[in-house]
Amino acid sequence: LKLGVSEKNVFHEFHPDAEDLFNVTCDLKLVCEKLKDRTQRNKRQ
């Protein structure tokens, strides 16, 4: 089933920092847990 939705779009809708964090960690569970609150930005390390 093709929905025409890319992971980039999903990450952007979930949280502005989600794609960057996923690209660094490759851990979707960590991204979801760490970025639960869309209004809080992820601190870069």
UniProtKB/TrEMBL annotation:
GO terms for cellular component: DNA ligase IV complex. InterPro entries: DNA_ligase_N_sf, LIG4. GO terms for biological process: DNA recombination; double-strand break repair via nonhomologous end joining; nucleotide-excision repair, DNA gap filling. Coiled coil: none annotated. GO terms for molecular function: ATP binding; DNA binding; DNA ligase (ATP) activity. This is Uncharacterized protein. It comes from the Eukaryota. Keywords: Ligase.
